[in-house]
Each structure stands twice: as structure tokens, then as C-alpha cells.
Amino acid sequence: MATTSFSKKPLALETGEPAVTPPPAGPEATFAKRPKLGSTKSKKREIPEGLWAKCPKCSTMIFDKELDANLKVCGKCGHHFPIGARERINGLVETCSFEEMDAELTSVDALKFTAVSAYADKLQEYQKKTKLKDAVITGIGRIDGFRVGLGVMDFDFLGGSMGSVVGEKLTRLIEAATEKALPLIIISTSGGARMYEGMFSLMQMAKTCGALAYYARQRLPYLSVLTNPTYAGVMASFASVGDLILAEPEALIGFAGPRVIKDTTQAELPPSFQTAEFLMAHGLIDAILPRKEMKEQLGYYLEFLTERMKKSSASA
Ligand SMILES: [Zn+2]
Fold first, then answer.
1. Residue 67's closest CA among 81, 84, 47, 46?
2. Backbone torsions φ then ψ of 138, nearest 5 degrees
3. How many angstroms is it from 88 CA to the middle of ligand 1?
4. Both ends of the chain: CA-CA distance in Å?
5. CA 173, CA 137: separation in Å to the nearest integer?
6. For residue 61, how far is its CA from the centre of ligand 1 (angstroms)?
7. Cα of 80 to ligand 1 centre, how many Å?
8. H-helix or E-strand containing 280?
9. What is the pLDDT of residues 230-259, one digit of tens each?
10. Distance between CA atoms of residues 4 and 15, nearest Å
């Protein structure tokens, strides 16, 4: 028995070099090894899925609970995993301070859209899957001592697409913040307008920006936070008109995707094109906020901006 276990390694190497330990006694020795190899493999398969996540950047295996406790940020390399709207709100606002608005608002299938599947079915499917009514949660909460109007988008709901509900909820939030004279924070993630609602989706771009124009007249601060990914109709409307435009590290941000731009312009795109870091170097983004520092940094900006607000209204 001792000879069979010692002879494993030289056999596996399959080099021409003479083995230090004597070669295997016969075919029985190789047969004896196989079940051992097989058993280790089946042990690996036994680990239930969903308990561990592999970091796409540094390939570290991270225990799910550890990832949740770390706001879905890899502890080794700082990679930001996607995070749901509710989780993000929980990590950002003071306990029990968030009063959600328009929680029951849902889309209607105005166009009777049927392509691959009916829009009404799609809505139901995603409502069930995400436990959200649509792709944004809005409300008023307290961050670092400041009462703010807060809107947080969720990419898991139909790619964070903006339909009439997302537009309407954000508009109502902006109007409430205007009325109550509160700072406004919108955290975006979106693939763009919701195709199932056609023109109704595109109208939300003008509607949200119209409400923001009224908000700006009150000299109230609007902080737009862009997270991975923020594209198209959302980026071309409310997400890009913040008094401060902030982003999470390595978030992809743009209007059209890089492939479309490359095909249209027939030009090579620079490395790290459309990343938050690239856009900060080119002046679109004011600061990059790692998720774990976001609460503290937003508090800092709010303090700075509301102090300025007080001073400017006093001098006016
Ligand atoms: Zn990592």
C-alpha cells in the first residue's frame, strides 16, 4: 500500500527522468488511484451554489455573507459588484429614516407591446423576480444627518430601463424635494429608455429635466451618482445635469455603447473608454466615490453645498 501512494507523483509528471521512488508495481496501482481523484472532484461539486462569488477582477472566491457585509465590494481588489436598490438604500440612509414614495406605482402596457413576449408578462415576471414594482425606488431619508430626497435605480429590473413609472417617480421626488427645500440625490444605473413603452419612455427625459430645472431655480443642490452601467436615455437626461456628478470606480458610463461608436466612427477607441476614471480625466465627472466611502463623502458634499446655499440666500 505504501508503494502505491508514494508512486503517484512521478507517474503523473510523465517525464523521462528516472523516478526517485520505485515505479508502480502494476496496473492495480493506477486503478487504485482513480477513485481518490474522483472523490476530490465530487467534493468540490458538493459546495452549494450561491454561497460563494468569484470576483471577476482578481478571481478571489468571496463568501456571500462577507460580500454583503462589505456592500458588495471585493475586499481584495476593490471590485464593485452590482448592488440592488434596496440594499444600497439600507447601506446609505440612517436606520428607519427612509420614507418611500409611490411604492405601488406600476406601468401599464399602453402600446400593447408584443415582440418576443408581451410587455405585461415581462413586467409581472420582473416584479416577481426583483420584488420591486419598477426600476427605481424613491423617497425621503436621512444621510449623515441631512434629510434628502433620494432616488435609487435597480439594474435587475429590466436593465434599469426608464419607462413612464421611473420618470414619474423621479419627477414626483424632484417636485417633493423642491417643495420641501431638500437636497436631492439620484443614484443611477440604466441601459436607457424602455423600448416597450416607446415614445412614453423618451418623454421621461424631458419631464425629469423639466422638474430639475424648477428645482435648480430654488438654488437647491442636486447630486447625481452614476453607477455601473449608466447609459443612453438616463445618461442623456437627469443623470448628467447634477450640480455634482459623481461615479463609482470603474463604472461604465456613456450614451451609445463603445461598439456602436466604433462602428459609426470607424476609429480605434482609447483604452478605458467610457469608464468613470476616463470621464473624470476628461471633465464630465467631478469625483469618484468608492461605495464604502459614499455615505461619508455625500455627507461632506451636502454640508458644503447646503452651507453655501445658506450663505448665498443670505447675501441675495
Ligand atoms: Zn477582487
1. 81
2. -125, 155
3. 20
4. 92
5. 10
6. 8
7. 8
8. helix 276-281
9. 999 999 999 999 999 999 999 999 999 989
10. 18
